Automatic annotation (TrEMBL), chains A, B:
Gene: hepT
Entry EC number(s): 2.5.1.30
Cofactor(s) this protein requires: Mg(2+)
Transferase in keyword set: yes
Gene Ontology process terms (BP): isoprenoid biosynthetic process
Record carries keyword Magnesium: yes
CDD domains: Trans_IPPS_HT
Family the UniProt entry places it in: Belongs to the FPP/GGPP synthase family.
InterPro entries (UniProt xref): Isoprenoid_synthase_dom_sf, Polyprenyl_synt, Polyprenyl_synt_CS
Pfam families hit by this protein: polyprenyl_synt (PF00348)
Annotated protein name in UniProt: Heptaprenyl diphosphate synthase component 2
PANTHER family: ALL TRANS-POLYPRENYL-DIPHOSPHATE SYNTHASE PDSS1, GERANYLGERANYL PYROPHOSPHATE SYNTHASE
Keyword entries, A-Z: Magnesium, Metal-binding, Transferase
Top-level EC class: transferase
Length: 321, 321
């Protein structure tokens, strides 16, 4: 029986956890909430896990580099979460918020900046300009993707644009984590490419699943009620697929128009999407892309790492299947 | 007659301008407004000017390094402007803003991130980890300062805390620009320190003047009405000095309390501050710190650079005197 992914890197993940916690051990006053709910939330540390596993795929295992870069990818993820949260929540402010909640919320702009700067510090510490350039290019694309998503709010985008969006939103950082792991492991270029492709496709599947959960999940799983994306004007795969079906198109477009003018149509939209069969078709997309991600691991010779990455990918998709 | 500071580096500043514009030549959609009003506003480029001048203070003049780092300091400044603007404006939102303005504003969170990433790209391009570390440490302090300023909103802070605040808000980036210029110029450590101290004290004086202008300026100069800082709960030197005077203390504290509960007391506060003589005393502070900044240039042997820096500092203070 193969070890699970998290067992192989259990000790490293503990070290990542304490490296991060050491950087955020002070009193953060106004931004504490933003820091606690992201950086210190004790999440799965999926991106560090990918990086640490891939860092074991080759002949070299540079633990110190791997740990520092694992912290960097996790903190970049946390910083985007914080800034997304500011953007997402703001339109739900009704009337005048209290001074305290207002400054707390707005100060989260700086919380994100602070976390990002800490991410850069981990990145610089490995003193490798090729890796810095990789990070830098990916981060630019991620931010461009976020801006595009805001521009496309309430737009029924094409499937191509949807996949481009989630690639930037999620998959590029997964891909970077795997690629960078492969680089510091000293593997060949074709293996580095294989790891990167695995990461990107895994990330795409992961985000599709996330988008499905926004329709099928309950408050307990999501920490928020279903239909949150469409409330914010973000039209994801399940809704795109439902709209693509002539039977549901008109009523869905009308309900979406209604949300723009303040109508509370999200639960009705969720109902129609569930009824339309779009969830099953979305899952089919996710499954196929996940299979593709696993196939791209074929050049990887280290079977422990290979099977750990596979199990990591498969277990994440089990959230919905 | 000595050349003015800007004449000496006229060509370099043009190059900085086009290097920056090249990075921001596309269509920025939702974030265009944030980009145009900061990065592309055609400001004085004071921080690049400091860096470029100091880069000429030694035996080496590495133009390429100087240009790239000049772009980096300017874009860091622009990014903080963008994020400050989000934070500052938000509490003036009354009722529900339009969808378009709302997303445009919120997308500015990403505009700031984008500009910051571009700043890092310029920084990395010089491939010097000592300089990266200097930038990184300063940026962390700047963000911490911004958070502290939010925490201290409407608080009558001590003079010491006020000077700490403006050091972080403005002076550290001035100091960094000068220090980094000195480093790439290959000057001795004592000269680098002299340039850094010049920059920091110049920055402190510069920010005091900015804080004075918020009381004495008119809409034409400021682009906003006087009393803007106190509307946002930011208590600066002129108001602190007025509060320190027993004759004005109680009425000012009462008016400040009123602003917290929504009263429109800012013009009354501006009147009292002007009447109290606090402006003259603030100017005296600025003048003394500016003199200190100029005195710290004494170890600088390159007289052209030295007098250019002096004239740059003096001309900026002429805004109020």
């Amino acid at each position: 029986m193969s070890k699970t992914a998290y067992e192989i890197i259990k000790n490293e993940l503990k070290e990542v956890e304490s490296l991060i916690r050491n950087q955020f051990s002070g009193n953060f006053g106004l931004i504490s909430q933003a820091i606690n709910s992201t950086v210190l939330s004790g999440g799965k540390r999926l991106r560090p896990a990918l990086l640490l596993l891939c860092a074991k795929a080759g002949k070299n295992y540079d633990k110190s580099k791997a740990l520092n870069l694992a912290c960097a990818v996790e903190l970049i993820h946390a910083a985007t979460l914080i800034h997304d949260d500011i953007v997402d929540d703001s339109k739900f402010r009704r009337g005048m918020p209290t001074l305290q909640s207002l400054f707390g919320k707005d100060a989260a702009v700086y919380a994100g900046d602070y976390v990002l700067i800490k991410a850069f510090n981990f990145l610089y510490s490995v003193k490798d300009f090729d890796i810095i350039n990789l990070f830098s290019r990916v981060m630019e694309k991620i931010v461009k993707g976020e801006i595009k998503q805001k521009e496309d709010v309430f737009k029924v985008i094409s499937f191509t644009d949807y996949f481009k969006r989630i690639k930037k939103k999620t998959a590029l950082l997964f891909g970077l984590s795997c690629e960078v792991g492969g680089i510091i492991a000293g593997t060949d270029n074709d293996k580095i490419r294989a790891l990167k492709n695995f990461g990107i496709n895994f990330g795409i599947a992961f985000q599709i699943i996330d988008d499905i959960l926004d329709y099928t999940g309950n408050r307990e799983i999501l920490g928020k009620s279903p239909g949150n994306d469409i409330k914010e004007g973000v039209i994801t795969l399940p809704l795109l697929l439902a709209i693509a079906s002539p039977h549901y198109k008109d009523s869905l477009l009308q309900l979406i128009e209604g949300i723009k003018t303040g109508e509370d149509n999200s639960s009705r939209i969720v109902e129609i999407v569930l009824e339309s069969g779009a969830i099953e078709r979305s899952k089919e997309f996710a499954r196929r892309i996940l299979e593709k991600s696993i196939r791209s691991l074929s050049p990887i010779e280290n079977l422990t790492v290979k099977s750990a990455l596979e199990s990591l990918a498969l277990s994440s998709i089990e959230r919905t299947f």
